[in-house]
Amino acid sequence: MTKTKHYKQPISVLVIIYNDQQQILLLERADKPGFWQSVTGSLEAGESLLQTAQREVAEETGICVTTDAIQDWQQTNEYEIYAYWRHRYAPGVTHNTEHVFSVCVRSDCNIELSTQEHLQYGWYTREEAIEMVFSPSNQQALIQLPNHW
Q1: What does pLDDT average to over the chain?
Q2: Which among 19, 27, 32, 42 could disulfide-bond with 107, CB atoms 3.0 to 4.6 Å apart, if both were Cys?
Q3: Domain boundaries, the chain
Q4: Residue 146: how many CB atoms within 10 A of its CB?
Q5: Closest residue by Cα to residue 63 from 14, 107, 98
Q6: 11-148 CATH fold
Q7: Which among 87, 49, 56 is positioned nearest to 71, based on CA atoms?
Q8: Would the pLDDT of 35 be above 90?
Q9: Residues 6+ apart with CB under 8 A from 74
């Protein structure tokens, strides 16, 4: 009996989490130490994009937010999937469409990282975060964040 491979959909969310002190939460990837990012994740069957954003925030940080608390920027980015992660997608899939969201949380909220996905986290100024993230679309979203405070 062969096992069917489950491929990720090339539709994802980017969720910038910031706190009431205007600090940005960044996560260091476990599969690529030194690569810092905001919360990201792929759409799963039967989910809306807001539900994906809500689920990914909870899975990656332990922060539970309502979909009403998440701001949908009505912005998408299309980019070529890094070769390092392309095996997660069906053969021939090379590009991803990313939908941008943000959510404000209390500065004293508790963070519980998914240790399979991330090594550590930190709260940073927007300027620091812009310099730290590896993804150009994450960087651009951080530049635009003051329009969505």
Answers
A1: 92
A2: 19
A3: 11-148
A4: 9
A5: 107
A6: Nucleoside Triphosphate Pyrophosphohydrolase (3.90.79)
A7: 49
A8: yes
A9: none
Q: Which residue has the tokens 């940005």?
A: 24
**Which residue is associated with the tokens 């150009």?**
136
Strand locations in 81-128 (E):
95-105, 118-124
Task: Please list, in sequence order, all residues whose beta carbon lies within 8 angstroms of the beta carbon of residue 10, skipping any fewer than 6 positions away.
Answer: 42, 81, 89, 93, 95, 96, 97
Distance separating alpha carbons of residues 76 and 141, to the nearest angstrom: 10
Q: Given a cut of 70, is residue 101 above it in pLDDT?
A: yes
Q: Are 101 and 72 in contact (CB under 8 A)?
A: yes
Q: What percent of the chain has pLDDT over 70?
A: 97
Amino acid at 99: H
CA 116 from centroid of its chain's CA atoms? 15
Q: Give the pLDDT confidence of 5-27 residue by residue, as tens digits.
A: 788 889 899 999 999 999 999 99
